[in-house]
Specification:
The protein is α/β, with parallel strands linked by helices and 515 residues long. The chain is built from 16 helices and 23 strands. Helix 3 packs across helix 4. The chain is elongated and about 90 Å long.
């Protein structure tokens, strides 16, 4: 993973000394690379934001800075000194995403907790705690219990507990993510006021780009790791293995007791082996001149469909077909927003949604991809790098209404998850649908159930594909009702280059490798 550093709109503090220095830090969990060669600095007295999608290593990096986790490679220095900063609580304080208040303690007793391991007597601890509560606007609530406070007040207690040790550096892991927008804005103002008062350095993690711009002098963006190459949590692949899930070709040899298939037959392979799992993951796949498949995985290819077209179908177009056609989720005239529209599943959704008569709004990350999606038939294209797709939909079609069916999109197709989940809910009309078949940017996003019940939104999951999806797709190609989006066809010796192009997001649709 790489770190990209950008400056916020204006500097709020400039000093020569760095409070935090991270140099070439890497962290792995087994074979999973979480952080790779990360370097950053936070000048003394500044506010540094670390931004990125779910699962990109933001919290891991913050834990390494705090000394709660060890880097496999690289160095972390606090005020120029390497070591484990948590050994000195006067230097670094950590505010977690959850408030972690002890329910049996009063607010002032919770605030004192961080001082109890130190040398201060009870009187001094109480004096410090009362001062921290006053600083965070909680004067008068000292003897209340956590369950008696609102979410915003509990966050203030957590902040007071972090400040009571008089930290030189305050680390914060999405501390305001569970607050409503109004309370979050209030906490932003409180944090900036207190930071200026105490002259401390703040390093915080957030999903929210707007929050980073409001609070930070400097923003570090962590790019999502390319999990298809370097591994994804929960998938254990037996190595070595020949990769390649999607494949089509001619039968060159038939095993004993195999019926109804003969040498020379043109076939598409369903990559799911019913006994062993997916080819290219649990057993050797198709990135080779020959591959061994079970006879029940074969689907006859009709005339008029090329091997390249057929090989593009299973995982991408098969998934899209099941989600849109099998589940009958799109009607003619529907406004359909497709996130991640430039990938394999995305281009499949664009193609099928247009075939079904929908008005397609595709989200892409570059002007070039936007033009190519328009050429495919997308009615509108949003560049998500400079435009908030949710706000665009609301401005274009009107704000969704709870008492009528006006405004918003009929369907949002979201297989990215992460930071895009709640914005997707916000732009769906009453009675609309959110379709999901994956979570490439994070499977555990922030949720806001109010939109689901208030606007009667249907969240419809779709998993994988079946032979009937693949056969139906080949018939649509044969009858020229759809065209498969193939970016490039490469020879087998350039397969690694094809993977690189996918990893670096240079592809629209599919890359096909031929032997």
């Amino acid at each position: 993973m790489n770190a990209v550093t950008t400056q916020a709109m204006f500097e709020k503090a400039t000093t020569v000394r760095n409070a935090v220095e991270v140099e070439h830090v890497s962290k792995h969990y087994g074979k999973l690379a979480v952080l790779e060669d990360i370097s950053l600095t936070a000048p003394s007295g500044s506010v540094l934001a670390i931004v990125g999608a779910s699962g990109c290593g933001k919290s891991t990096l913050l834990n390494i800075i705090a000394g709660l986790a060890q880097a496999d490679q690289g160095d972390v220095r606090i005020d120029g000194v390497a070591g484990e900063p948590t050994h000195d609580t006067r230097v670094v304080s950590y505010m977690f995403q959850e408030d972690r208040l002890l329910p049996w303690r009063t607010i002032v007793a919770n605030t004192e907790f961080g001082l109890e391991a130190g040398s201060l007597n009870a009187e001094r601890r109480r004096e410090r705690s009362l001062a921290a509560l006053k600083m965070t606007g909680l004067e008068g609530f000292e003897h209340a219990y956590p369950h008696e406070l609102s979410g915003g007040m509990r966050s203030r207690v957590a902040l007071a507990r972090s400040l009571v040790v008089k930290p030189y550096i305050l680390l914060m892991d999405e501390p305001f993510s569970k607050l409503d927008p109004q309370m979050r804005s209030q906490m932003h103002a409180e944090l900036l006021r207190i930071r200026e008062q105490l002259k401390m350095t703040v390093v915080f993690v957030t999903h929210d780009v707007e929050e980073a711009i409001v609070l930070a002098d400097k923003v570090v963006v962590l790019r999502p790791r390319p999990f298809t190459v370097k591994g994804m949590p929960g998938i254990k692949v037996p190595l070595p293995v020949v990769i390649g899930l999607d494949m089509a070709g001619e039968i060159t040899e038939v095993g004993d007791n195999v019926e109804n298939w003969s040498v020379g037959a043109r076939v598409l392979v369903n990559p799911l082996n019913k006994k062993k799992g997916l080819m290219g993951e649990m057993l050797d796949g198709g990135m080779a001149q020959y591959c061994l498949v079970s006879a029940d995985q074969l689907i006859a290819m009709p005339e008029g469909v090329t091997f390249e077209e057929a090989a593009s179908l299973p995982v991408a177009y098969g998934t899209a077909h099941r989600m849109l056609v099998t589940h009958n989720t799109i009607k003619p005239g529907d406004r359909v927003v497709i996130l991640g529209a430039s990938g394999g599943v995305g281009t499949g959704c664009v193609t099928l949604a247009k075939m079904l008569g929908a008005e397609v709004i595709a989200a892409a990350g570059s002007a070039d991809k936007a033009e190519r999606l328009k050429a495919m038939g997308a009615d509108h294209v949003i560049n998500y790098r400079d435009t908030d797709f949710s706000k665009w939909v609301i401005e274009k079609y009107g704000k969704p209404q709870r008492r009528s069916y006006e405004g918003g999109a009929d369907v949002v197709i979201n297989f990215t998850g992460g930071d895009t989940w709640v914005p997707s809910l916000k732009c769906i009309k009453r009675g609309g649908s959110l379709l999901v078949c994956g979570a490439t940017a994070g499977h555990d996003p922030k949720e806001d159930l109010r939109y689901i019940w208030s606007f009667e939104i249907r969240v419809i999951g779709s998993n994988s594909f079946y032979d009937d999806n693949l056969a139906a797709l080949m018939e649509l190609i044969r009858t020229k009702k759809i065209a498969v989006q193939i970016d490039k066809v490469l020879p087998l010796e350039q397969a690694a280059e094809g993977l690189r192009m996918i990893r670096d997001r240079e592809v629209l649709g599919k890359i096909v490798v031929t032997p």
